[in-house]
């Protein structure tokens, strides 16, 4: 079977920056209160006239340039998002904007685990020989589903997009992955649809649905993350006979700095090995892993052939881990 390599990456966030002090003018909070509990100092937020799809396009184009590919090379495009601009999905719109006329486009919804789930999914299409080049794009605009009067959630979320190119190769880049779901915790983090009866002069009854704001039980989600994520990382590494210290960087979903620190403690590795940009971006859902991975690649902190781990976790509840080697080798 063909090996799967990650050959390009791109990422972008909106230009508008909202600081903790900015939020303090909206809700009863402060920079010290937010930073001490989450590690977040600011987040990037889409303006009313900006499109999440535009961010996805820019991230995808950057990834293609770095991979030395064009949109015409793409066989499969997977858009990981929980905030599509069309309820039917946005992947085909992204395909159109990129000019990826040969690509099959599909959406994948797995909330903050979306990028990891999408990479795992795309890699299987390559491994079976179905496709040779797969573009994974993760984009979320959670600011548009945020209750700006709820200080427990509005402080957390930002917007962004990231993308990677996966290609068939001779040397393995995606070494393995483990994916998990636990529906018993689905109520801990939701954007639920509320039904309202529609009054019609007819003999049948119908309802109209409208999505609500983000709800999160922060304490339970934190407890889930600090237990489930390091446990699955350890299991994934053990399957492939890799010790935690042999991994150059750990790129986890950026939900809370305390979660990142807890994972470092559990794995007994330096905190510097756990990549973090949460102070500047907040929680960008599916985009958070490629955003921080792109920073390391751009700064040459991750070299071709070095081991790294990607881990996503969040609503569903869902979580997943990928062990990989960076770049064409």
Quick summary of this structure?
With 329 residues, this protein is of the alpha+beta class. It has helices at 20-24, 31-38, 52-67, 91-98, 114-127, 218-239, 257-267, 278-281, 288-298, and strands at 3-12, 17-19, 42-44, 76-80, 104-108, 133-141, 159-169, 174-181, 189-190, 193-198, 206-211, 215-216, 249-252, 307-314, 318-325. The protein contains nine helices and 15 strands.
Tally of domains? 2
Q: Assign the CATH superfamily of the largest domain.
A: Thiolase/Chalcone synthase
Class of secondary structure makeup:
alpha+beta
Give the number of DSSP strands. Answer: 15
Rg from alpha-carbon coordinates: 20 Å
Please name the CATH topology of the largest domain. Peroxisomal Thiolase, Chain A, domain 1
Overall pLDDT, averaged? 95
Oligomer: single chain
Number of helical stretches of at least 4 residues = 9
Shape: globular
CATH class of the largest domain: Alpha Beta
Low-confidence stretches: none
Q: What amount of the residues lies in strands?
A: 25-35%
Largest sheet, strands/sense/barrel: 5 strands, mixed
Strand order of the largest sheet: 1-7-6-4-5
Helices and strands, in N-to-C order? EEHHEHEHEHEEEEEEEHEHHHEE
The separation of the N and C termini measures 17 Å
Q: What is the CATH-assigned architecture of the largest domain?
A: 3-Layer(aba) Sandwich
Which range best describes the helical content: under 10%, 10-25%, 25-40%, 40-55%, 55-70% or over 70%?
25-40%
